[in-house]
């Protein structure tokens, strides 16, 4: 960071809406790599601009939020690598039985596959498995965790990686989804409580 005009850069915490960051990311992908970008914050708004080439302005997300670093697992016991496109197809196929009241999907990692299972009293059951290589951990017993598949699909569609590493502590702790090609994208997804 560098001084701009009379203002000194400072550390502050702000939550910028994902939709705005997605727009900025798309614009930055079309600009030269060395293009300087300025981020300015007020207590309620943000502006992201680049020398008159573009400007994105909006409202910050308001509220009190937990310290996000506290929910990121620092030492996952297991890590599984899956094809990003196959994972998207798996979720979309298994999700055909999901409805508004039954969004949860059970993921079971057994060391060589990940199985996504969903069920609905009115639509039936679905279970789809794809290959998953174990990158870390000894999988003596399958590891199961429940997620809302919409969050995972949204994350997978934002990634450009060929494969994703799913890093788990257990079936009840936040999971890390990491672009295995470059570690450039790290996503934290909280599991759902379930009675299964």
Written overview of the protein:
With 196 residues, the chain is α+β, with helices and mostly antiparallel strands. It has three helices and twelve strands. The strands form three sheets. It has a five-stranded antiparallel sheet. Strands 7-6-5-9 form a four-stranded antiparallel sheet. The protein has a three-stranded antiparallel sheet with strand order 1-2-3, covered by helices on one side. It is elongated and about 55 Å long. The model has no long low-confidence stretch (mean pLDDT 83).
Provide a brief overview of the structure.
With 196 residues, the chain is of the alpha+beta class.
Strand order, biggest sheet? 8-4-10-11-12
Shape: elongated
Number of H/I helices: 3
Largest beta-sheet details: 5 strands, antiparallel
Order of helices and strands: HEEEEHEEEEEHEEE
- Distance linking N and C termini: 49 Å
Measured as a percent range, the helix fraction is: 10-25%
- Per DSSP, what share of the residues sits in E-state strands of 2 or more residues? 25-35%
Structural class estimated from helices and strands: alpha+beta
Rg, Å, rounded? 20 Å
Total E-strand runs: 12
Residue windows where pLDDT falls under 50 for at least 5 positions: none
User: What's the average pLDDT?
Assistant: 83
């Amino acid at each position: 960071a560098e001084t701009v005009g009379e203002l000194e850069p400072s550390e502050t915490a702000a939550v910028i809406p994902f939709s705005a960051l997605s727009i900025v990311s798309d614009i930055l992908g079309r600009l030269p790599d060395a293009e300087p970008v300025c981020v300015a914050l007020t207590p309620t708004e943000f502006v992201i601009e680049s020398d008159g080439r573009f400007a994105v302005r909006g409202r910050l997300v308001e509220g009190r939020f937990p310290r996000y670093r506290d929910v990121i697992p620092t030492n996952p016991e297991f890590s599984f690598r899956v094809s990003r496109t196959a994972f998207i197809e798996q979720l979309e196929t298994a999700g055909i039985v999901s409805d508004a009241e039954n969004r949860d999907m059970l993921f079971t990692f057994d060391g060589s596959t990940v199985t996504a299972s969903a069920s609905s009293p009115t639509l039936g059951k679905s279970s789809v498995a794809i290959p998953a290589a174990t990158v870390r951990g000894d999988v003596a017993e399958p590891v199961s965790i429940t997620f809302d598949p919409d969050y995972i699909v949204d994350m997978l569609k934002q990634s450009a990686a060929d494969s994703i590493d799913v890093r788990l502590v257990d079936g009840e702790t936040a999971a890390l989804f990491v672009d295995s090609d470059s570690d450039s994208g790290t996503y934290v997804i909280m599991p759902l409580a379930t009675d299964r």
